[in-house]
Amino acid sequence: MNQHRDMLRFCACCPNPCRRAIPANHERQIESETPSALALIGLSLIDSRLDFDADVSEMLSHTDMARLCRAACPYDHDIAGAIDGLRKHYEVKP
Amino acid sequence: MSAQTFQQAIRSHVSPEWAAEYAAIVGAEHVLTSMPHLLAYARDRLPYATFHLREGKLPGTLPLAIVCPANASELAAVVKLSRARKTPLIPFGAGSGVLGGTLPLDHEIIVDLKRLNQIVALNETDACVTVQAGMNGGQFEAWLNERKLTCGHYPQSLHMSTVGGWAACRGAGQNSSRFGKIEDMVLGLTAILPDGQELRVRSVARRAVGPSLKDLLVGSEGVLGIITELTLRVWKLPQKRYSVVIGFPCLPEALGALRDVMQAELRPALVRLYDEEESRQRGESAGIDSVRPIMAMMEFSGVERLAKVERDLAMDIVAAHGGKQIKDEPYHHWVAHRFESYSPQWQSRDYFMDTIEVTSAWSQLPELYARIRSGILGLAEGTHFGTHWSHVYAEGACQYMTFRLPPMDTAIGLRLHHRAWEIAQSVCLELGGSISHHHGSGVFRNPWMEQELGGGLSLLQAIKDHLDPDNLFVPGKLGLRPRPGAVDIHNRKDAQ
Q1: Nearest-angstrom CA–CA distance, B136 and B487
Q2: Residue A28, SS3?
Q3: Where are the domains of chain A?
Q4: Which domains does chain B have, with CATH numbers?
Q5: What are the backbone angles phi and psi of residue B109, rounded to the nearest 5°?
Q6: What are the backbone dihedrals phi and psi of residue B26, each rounded to the nearest 5 degrees, phi first?
Q7: DSSP string covering B420-464, please?
Q8: What's phi and psi for A24, nearest 5 deg?
């Protein structure tokens, strides 16, 4: 999954200027599902600083906010896509 | 004590059973206790925190839980429960602060306010709007713009911050020379105090009934209460904008021109002056050269005739200081990127990049700039240092400094980073300035708060002790007393 590492590392350091694309009436308004937070968790997995468990899998399944933010990312990063790929990778990993 | 790795923090974390009691208030789906959620809230945008996280270490502690109330009543109930349980709280907007104001240091509960994100009322006759604290800044401004109005507050963090965060941290926007800082815009507010009671400061144009109670909350960073609602001034969108980009022969002349513009009672909507380093980066294609190496931008806006007169008067002052209009490309580039963050590209590549903003009198600015620049550039080979001045007043200006140390051993980098802060803050204090113009104090400015406030810090502590006798609201921030056993980021092995 190293092809996503640089992008996730960048996004993990980014304060989510894209978050304006999350509507005020969106059901969940939590920080941990913003692109930057997902990137931090994803990066921590890749770097073996977090174990892939049910909680991590559950959190990484919530990419709808990141998907909403995609068009508003000034750097054209697809964090939702990267996180989806990361989760699938770890789910099939023995 | 050194910073904990993620795995150490996770292994030692104990989530008490009574954390579930918060679910009875806000609903189970709005209480987060799982490990990845806790990790995501264990930071804000304090660069020191980022330097730790990229090494797989926590800057402080994990929070105990995250609670997301839907309204002020739920928030009050959360506060009362926390008081009964003696559990500390930290209000959280969008976490864009860069001083560690929302960093958990003692397993606090994070209270995420983003569900309080609605416009409450707009009164166009009285030119004010009431908005809940958790509303995204960019969405708030867009809502006003749809009605041909503006709040006039445009921080670089516009889209990554909340309206409540602006007020709690006493922020400033890029149009501050016209509209003022956020404290000049707040007419009234509602907050939940540490005893769970509501404080409502009604919105009126001005009053003379003792000290301003709203200013106990504006800039308090949550230590005295949690802002739930704000009433802010609104203005009509400008009829016309006139922008100019200027080349100056030297920095003293440029600073003199800005001072004279403000002391002439002109009201530029935008003023940005760059030092030679930043001018070269931004202005070479527009005409910045060895004759005029210093670049500034100004914008005048509002009613067309008035804006034009102000621009012309300002340009007379500019010309008297040797300034000359150059191509306007840098202005348009700045407009296109004004709400983006420049930090990720450096911080993600292991640079120790940070920004420091201070306030100084005009008379002290040249020495302030020269001494801090020299001190920080001398820290390590390959260090970058650039400065701009973009919040200007008749009396002085904010000096906004960006520095980055090259990638190096983390322990050395953290030490030099702290040294850079020590240089900037101590020189500022020595020259009579203020250690912060608009980023706030958080936890990272704790070492300099006593010198900044003098006896005022004891007064602030006394107010805090009265309102919050158990020290439960954002403990250990703003230079106030920490809780026993809390992480002290300024006195740990890896920060010295």
Answers
A1: 30
A2: coil
A3: 2-18+30-92
A4: 6-114+460-495 (3.30.43.10), 119-236 (3.30.465.10), 240-337 (3.30.70.3450), 344-444 (3.30.300.330)
A5: -85, 130
A6: -110, -10
A7: HHHHHHHHHHHTT-BS-SSS--TTTTHHHHHHHHTTHHHHHHHHH
A8: -65, -25
Contact A49 B117 (CB under 8 A): no
Q: Give the per-residue SS3 of B115-133.
A: CCCCEEEEECCCCEEEEEC
Provide the chain B residues 124-163 that lie in CB contact (below 8 A) with chain A. 134-136, 138-139, 142, 157, 159-160
B66 in contact with A, Cβ within 8 Å: yes
CA geometry: angle at B375 spanning B370 and B378, to 5°?
A: 120
pLDDT single digits (tens) B424-480: 999 999 999 999 999 999 999 999 999 999 999 999 999 999 999 999 999 999 999
Instruction: Indicate the burial class of B410 (C-beta count within 10 angstroms; 0-12, 13-18, 19 or more).
Output: middle
Q: Summarize pLDDT for B19-63 with one digit per residue, the tens.
A: 789 999 999 999 999 999 999 999 999 999 999 999 999 999 999
Query: B11-23, pLDDT tens digit by residue?
Result: 888 777 777 899 9
Rounded-to-integer distance, Cα B228 and Cα B168, Å: 10
Query: Which of A4, A9, A11, A19 to mutate to probe the B interface, most B CBs <10 Å?
Result: A19
ipTM, two decimals: 0.97
Separation CA A91–CA B119 (nearest Å): 42
| Token pair belonging to B82 | 């926390």
Asked if B37 has any chain A CB less than 8 Å from its own CB, the reply is yes
Residues of chain B found within 8 Å of residue A71, distances taken between Cβ atoms: none
